Prior knowledge:
By secondary structure, the chain is α/β, with parallel strands linked by helices.
Amino acid sequence: xxxxxxxxxxxxxxxxxxxxxxxxxxxxxxxxxxxxxxxxxxxxxxxxxxxxxxxxxxxxxxxxxxxxxxxxxxxxxxxxxxxxxxxxxxxxxxxxxxxxxxxxxxxxxxxxxxxxxxxxxxxxxxxxxxxxxxxxxxxxxxxxxxxxxxxxxxxxxxxxxxxxxxxxxxxxxxxxxxxxxxxxxxxxxxxxxxxxxxxxxxxxxxxxxxxxxxxxxxxxxxxxxxxxxxxxxxxxxxxxxxxxxxxxxxxxxxxxxx
Length: 258
């Protein structure tokens, strides 16, 4: 059994729980932990869990809203951490006391019952990775923080049963925002973040009868709205708008079975 939930997703912080259970054994992976330690503890508590229940942390890249308290969490609870070498160097090559593991595109990782396949994405970070997670039967894609979907990215999304997908901004809202021109260019560029239209095109391209959930995530509080995202995603998948789910910055989402 594979399931996941967002603990919160947005420019103020991102964290996603992935849980797999097999033969009575349960493993939990925290993908990013972009909050202060006490805030992460509170969000875990709302999910009925504590940091001691986490078997591993995967940090996708070095930006503060993703790496957050990874170092403090690992040291306090002696939790192993995976990230690319580029991400580690970009954060100052901090000492994880032997609990740091380097991740590479295409190199599979086993974290208890969870099988993780990292893959590179185009984003303005040192060596960013996103993930495909599986319990051996069901497959979940975690895809945030990229400016566009390369053929390599799209290949990693084939056959997913669920996906957490970035819907960062509405292009019109971004263009009319108070952001300075350099920031508009950065967010909307090929190494920035996915627009609603770009994310919907990804969802449409990988959609199949077995795709159970698409959780829209990393919505900009300034340049997007959940109602716009739900409408665009419903149109892309031929579904009803009320069936579309968005992860919020404050609450994340509930558990979703893959």
